[in-house]
Amino acid sequence: MEIMDLAFMTEDRQKRYGSVCTGLVFALWVGLFAGNAFAQSQPDGTATAPLKPGTVFQDCPNCPELVVVPAGLFIMGSNGSRKTENPAHRVNITRPFAIGRFEVTFREWYACLKAKACSHAPDDHKWGRRGRPVINVTWDQAETYTSWLTEVTGHRYRLPSEAEWEYAHRAGTTTAFWWGEKAGENNANCKDCKTQWSAKSSAPVGSFKPNPFGLHDTTGNVFEWVADCWNPNHQGAPSTTEPRKDGDCKNRVIRGGSFYYFNKVAQASYRAKNPPGVKSYWLGFRVVREIP
């Protein structure tokens, strides 16, 4: 295991609450940042301390970089005008988990292809592969990739649940975007975000500043597959991070927006769907790695 230092997670955040009412996003977060946030590593790459919130690491040289996010709770969704986001509801994250610091890249995907665990060579839409998020992969192909990572590393990898994704995306914030209520300029890659890639193509991963948990590109760039079956709203949603396996499993949830869509689609609570067998140049994914 390769451990990397990330300097943004050193302060204690035992209790942090936030709310935005009157039809906007209402969220609540409690993070657990106790003790040393950074595990150290031996020369052979094995960790000498448990993975703590804020730790950035890789399980193998060709594996995605991961960041550990804390246990806590938040209010998922909103009570606004978009009915797919209703009702806002509390979700408990009972233990830390690791999630991709970036969207899975072409380089990381091709490691799976080289190992012959993945069989699909996705089109890069003539944008180039260097540093770019992998695109044109189906939900099932993304699942195959996570299964390969599980086999190679001995740790369980999978797609994030929708609740895990929104929790990691919000990172303790309560606004429409993690940096504020307005999209602004050059904060993320969406159609009207006024970047060099807007309405043209994906951007290389990490082209924009990370959110408070250290994740890049959860806003815009490419939509991301999550594990859940589609439901038209949050009625009956669990209070845990388990993915929803009820509802319309002929469609899967996608989150985060993309360079191709306006900024409203990239807002923290915005939900969309896509048939699992359909791939696109505006759709990719990131992974979750469970922490024992």
Description:
The chain is an alpha+beta fold and 292 residues long. Helix content is 11%, strand content 17%. It has helices at residues 106-114, 139-153, 162-170, and strands at residues 2-4, 56-58, 66-69, 72-76, 89-93, 97-100, 157-158, 223-230, 248-255, 272-274, 283-284, 288-289. The chain has a six-stranded antiparallel β-sheet with strand order 1-2-3-6-12-7. β2 and β3 form a beta hairpin. The chain starts with a strand and ends with a strand. Residues 5-48 have low confidence and may be disordered.
Task: Supply the key terms.
292 residues; alpha+beta; six-stranded antiparallel sheet; four-stranded mixed sheet; globular
Give the SSE layout.
Elements: E1 2-4, E2 56-58, E3 66-69, E4 72-76, E5 89-93, E6 97-100, H1 106-114, H2 139-153, E7 157-158, H3 162-170, E8 223-230, E9 248-255, E10 272-274, E11 283-284, E12 288-289
Parallel strand pairs: 8-11
Antiparallel strand pairs: 1-2, 2-3, 3-6, 4-5, 6-12, 7-12, 8-9, 9-10
Shape descriptor reads globular
Neighbour order of strands in the largest sheet: 1-2-3-6-12-7
Q: Structural class, from secondary structure content?
A: alpha+beta
**Biggest sheet record:** 6 strands, antiparallel
- Mean pLDDT score: 87
Give the N-terminus to C-terminus distance in angstroms.
15 Å
The tally of beta strands, per DSSP, is 12
Secondary-structure element string: EEEEEEHHEHEEEEE
- Any idea what the radius of gyration is? 18 Å
What is the percentage of strand-forming residues?
A: 15-25%
Question: How helical, in percent, are the residues?
Answer: 10-25%
Low-confidence stretches: 5-48
Number of helices: 3
